[in-house]
Amino acid sequence: MVRLELRDLSGQPLSGAHILVEGNMTHPGMKPEFGEAKEVEPGRYQAPLEFTMAGDWLLIYHVTLQSGEKLEPQVEVKGVRAN
Amino acid sequence: MQVPVVGRFLSWHHARTVLQIPLFLISIAMVLHGLLGPSLAPKNLATTLSWVHFRGVLVLVLLCAGNFFCLACPFMLVREGARRFLKPQFNLPRILRNKWLSVALFVVILFVYELFDLWSSPWWTAWLIVGYFATALVVDGLFKHAPFCKFVCPIGQFNFVASTVSPLEVKIRNHDVCASCSTKDCIRGRREPASQLVVIQRGCELALYQPRKVGNLDCTFCLDCVYACPHDNVGILSRLPASELMIDPMRSGVGYFSRRKDLAALVIVFTFGALLNAFGMVSPIYAVENRLAQVLHLQHEAPVLGLLFSWFLVIEPMLLLGLAAWLTRVWGKSSLAVLPLLVRYTYTLVPLGFAIWLAHYSFHFLTGLYTFIPVTQSAIASLGWPILGEPLWTLTGLPVAAVHVFEFGFLGLGLIGSLLVSYRLSQAELVHPWRVFGLWAAVSLLLWLAALWLMAQPMEMRGMILGG
């Protein structure tokens, strides 16, 4: 499960956003993983995402705010280990 | 050449150019996307097409046909264009007319691949492609014939070694026809009747005289010999894969395999490099690297990689092959000295070495088979022409479990091939041929078990992600 918190510049939570989480590895040809986020509290979202392989991942959050504005923050997740 | 459609196409003098142009245009697209496109490797044409599709199609074509990638090489298209304006003036110095430089470059490419995580870097991959074009231009711009292909290009050397197990070969149909030929066009080129100084069709630039050419080593399938032959006596013919490794005649443009230490070194890097390259992508490598760094108090990856490369490509082969060669002499009672035995029997490893490359590259190719589609859709859309629709990022390829069957099948075939070559070579031993076979079969078996273990390890992909 990956979690994301959206707040505006004044620190107020941003509700009602549509967020699709995309997980990619560093090697081309590997299948990206996708997870659709649900809002669990105002401004707090979580999405199921399976890290299918050990190694370094890059998460891209495809965010569409209620206002229609689109954002794509990225987060590196290094050193994922196999179970 | 007698196969319908394909044979007719390859008989056409411009077939090579027609094959080279699309690959050249794709190379341009890869370089541009690598330099200007997304820095995430799975979303970039440079990395996706190089490390997934090019490598995968290359080994499968070598397995099923022959060295057709050298035939369609885009570097040579640029070189041919340049040679219309700039004629090379020099002959490559004699000291460089062997495989040592290309062996060193092969090792450098493997090392740089690991050190800079080239698979994860569109930018570095693009510069590697540019570097290849530039090197081909400089070398073949300065020196006559095809020195880049024969003595420099690491991809070419890989293709030459691998194509010794291909089922097709460029060779003559009838020796009697060549025996009565006085013009030797296949090597000298075809000349204008009015002026013998004017060559209207080039002969073999890699010094492979067809009547004495044996096998695929150093053959780029350029088909110059086919076009030059006035008797239509040269073609692409079928043969038993790896059969050329079982014999040791004098080969035009190559010499005797058993006397070529540089060729044996190339085969060693080809085989042990296959294991090393695959090892670089599984979990245990990181534990080994960390342990080495701790024990030796090293902060940077380069010296750790240097140690691993020294072990895999120098120490381990010398120990394993040296021991087998020494035992071949003392226990197998071979009449040859240890070093000539090591050189001679190194060629038994080619089928297995190729199988390891095949298993590794076909894994990435088959599991990522369709990934070029969304990457291309995205690349075209980024130009402002979303004519191919929204990128289908969920497209990948075959399931991993299905591809594993191919991997282990390839490894099995490679082992059989190496055992067959070992058997044929050992039968020339006068005193204890079966002991000699047993020794070299054991070497192949050991490497095969190592490859099986490798392919069964969990993959772990690390590398540069952003800003590469």
What does this structure look like?
The complex is a heterodimer of chains A (83) and B (468). Chain A has no helices and 8 strands. With 83 residues, chain A is mainly β. Chain A starts with a strand and ends with a strand. In chain A, a hairpin with a 5-residue loop joins strand 6 (54-64) and strand 7 (70-71). The mean pLDDT of chain A is 89. Chain A has one domain: Sandwich (Immunoglobulin-like). The radius of gyration of chain A is 14 Å and the shape is elongated. Chain A has strands at 2-5, 18-25, 33-36, 38-41, 44-47, 54-64, 70-71, 74-80. With 468 residues, chain B is mainly α. Chain B folds into 2 domains: 6-163 and 256-456, no CATH class; 168-239. Chain B contains 20 helices and 5 strands. Chain B has helices at 6-11, 15-36, 45-64, 68-71, 74-83, 100-115, 122-142, 147-152, 154-162, 175-179, 185-188, 224-228, 261-279, 284-296, 301-330, 338-346, 350-367, 372-382, 400-426, 433-456, and strands at 168-172, 190-191, 199-201, 234-238, 460-461. In chain B, strand 2 and strand 3 (199-201) form a beta hairpin. In chain B, helix 3 runs antiparallel to helix 18. The longest helix of chain B has 30 residues, at 301-330. At the A-B interface, strand 2, strand 6 and strand 8 of A face helix 3, helix 17 and strand 5 of B.
Describe the structure in brief.
With 83 residues, chain A is mainly beta.
Structural class determined from secondary elements of chain B = mainly alpha
What's the CATH class of chain A, please? Mainly Beta
The CATH H-level superfamily of chain A is Immunoglobulins
Number of strands of chain B: 5
Q: Roughly what is the average pLDDT of chain A, rounded to an integer?
A: 89
Radius of gyration of chain B (Å): 23 Å
Q: Helicity range of the residues of chain A?
A: under 10%
How many distinct folded domains of chain B?
2
> How large a portion of the residues of chain A is in β-strands, by DSSP E?
over 45%
Cα-to-Cα separation, first versus last residue of chain A: 15 Å
Structural class of chain A: mainly beta
Mean pLDDT of chain B: 93
- Cα-atom radius of gyration of chain A: 14 Å
